[in-house]
Amino acid sequence: MSVITGLGVVAPNGLGLKEFWAATLSGRSGIGELDRFDTSGYPARLAGLVRDLDIAEYLPRKLMPQTDVSTRLALVAAQWALEDAEVDTAELKDYDMGVVTANASGGFEFTHREFNKLWAQGPDHVSVYESFAWFYAVNTGQISIRHRMRGPSSALVAEQAGGLDALGQAARTVRDGVPLVVAGGVDSAFDPWGWLSHLAGGQVSTDPDPATAYRPFSSHATGYVPGEGGAICIVESAQSARARGIQGYGELAGYAATFDPHPDKGLPSGLRRAASLALADAGITPEDVDVVFADAAGVPKLDRTEAQALGELFGTRGVPVTAPKTLTGRLMSGGGVLDVVAALTSIQESVIPPTFGTANVPDEYGIDLVTGEPRPATVRTALVLARGRWGFNAATVIRGIENRS
């Protein structure tokens, strides 16, 4: 049994669990004008930005020239998660602690700055830290080095699905005998090149109004808003948590990942199969699920596909569906983990956060989308879904510890 005992959140609408959850329930958005460079010539100018975080307050000065903004966010989130779980790494064996992170973009801002130096000034001016600061695995490496964690560790790249994959891999690592794993996903890609990479996919909303730019499952959906940040979790064996006197937030009860089948094969959608397999891994049925935290792409075709997958899985039961990410944007590898944080808090506080900004859900979708206001509900089990570009799908089942059958 894998339990989540610590949470570290760096989200566009809140730093830390309490601030993030308060914003999620009240509808305080972190989406605004992208102001890190001149975006006046771009078709889209909105992003979910992490603001008001004084990195120097949390990280030693020597790390600043070595790290990209995404790594700094990941290091802060990991520190907060460890503190939240009351983990003193000096009291644990270094090989009993692992790290699994997901990252979709690497150190975009760092590496592009160094590329500019290479082209304009020559190779002698490129930072020696470029050799690793750009890499997808750097967050795993920097967290493990800073906290002296030498247990089994890995890095995953699956875009929006990656964060859930990291949690799933962490649970497997715990199952294999490692007592504690730091796991999650954090991303940031908001330099000019990074912004162009977001826009190149053709799915970013060009609506200039932060209140309406990202409204998944709406008949007026026009795409999504990119964001940065994410969350890091402490995943432990139940035995390890009990030995430390910690109960934890909830159980990471099930996980599965799939790829989309070829459209000509006539097979069930990859997202539906991921959800079904995750439920089977948790040893439950669709009737046991109290809420679904949806991937919520905000692209009509993709929203329709997800709604269809949910309809096939749950039938006419009408399980509540929500997507609080409308307040943060889609965070790539950080998005799924942030939904897990929201799911854990929903279970603890018996409330489902709404999908702010979405209205006019087409009847053909056939989903009970929670909108407008938080919905009081008894939440024992949550299904969290995520899809990444190029066919990645991931699903996790989150369950309250006290409700485990």
Automatic annotation (TrEMBL):
Residues 1-400 form the Ketosynthase family 3 (KS3) domain. Keywords: Acyltransferase, Transferase. InterPro entries: Beta-ketoacyl_synthase, Ketoacyl_synth_C, Ketoacyl_synth_N, PKS_Beta-ketoAc_synthase_dom, Thiolase-like. Pfam families: ketoacyl-synt, Ketoacyl-synt_C. PROSITE patterns: KS3_2 (PS52004). The keyword Zinc-finger does not apply. CDD domains: CLF (cd00832). Gene3D superfamilies: 3.40.47.10. SMART domains: PKS_KS (SM00825). Belongs to the thiolase-like superfamily. Beta-ketoacyl-ACP synthases family. This is Ketosynthase chain-length factor. It comes from Kibdelosporangium philippinense.
